[in-house]
Amino acid sequence: MRLGIYGGSFSPIHNGHLLLAESCREQCALDEVWFLPAATNPLKQDGVLASDAHRVAMIELAIAGNHAFKCSPLELERGGLSYTVETLRDLQKIVPQAELFLLVGGDSFASLFHWHKIEEICELATICTVGRPGSDLNDWGRLPEVLSDDQMAHIKQHFVEMPLIGLSATDIRARIASGRSIRYMVPRSVEKYIETQRVFHKQVAPA
After folding, report:
1. Of the candidates 11, 116, 18, which has an alpha carbon nearest to the alpha carbon of residue 69?
2. Quick check: is 13 in a domain?
């Protein structure tokens, strides 16, 4: 099985996340894509997160009906900082028959050099990097300093294109808190969940 692994805060999951996952599934011929909400992202420890339960519920709503998409609470159950290398090690034991593909958005690609044990990550999984049509991610930064020529070539061979969609979970949270619309930014089911559960809404102090 060719298994795509897509980690992130997903606070909330939005249509950009879903389009990235589907683009990778199609272009890398993946059998499944697992969404793994992070317990604590080592590079985003000051982020504003919904509760674990809310984030899992929103992911489940967003991917309902797509049999290739699944939500895994692996990192939430492990707790602590969510290091990708530990997740991949765990997945090798859980699904030893799977060939692992790590889905990385263009915004995260620039930080790969700083990821914990990036060399081992490249041994455990194939990195699928996503960019907009026509881009080729020429800015490798300091990545060639820590990866072999073969590993760099492997990353370049698994470049995935997707339409440019400028959505940000940070912006979506801000829009919710200020009472602005998020219609068509997230699936309708997620929008309704956020509305009914009052996720990300400003709390009004009692008079």
Report:
1. 18
2. yes
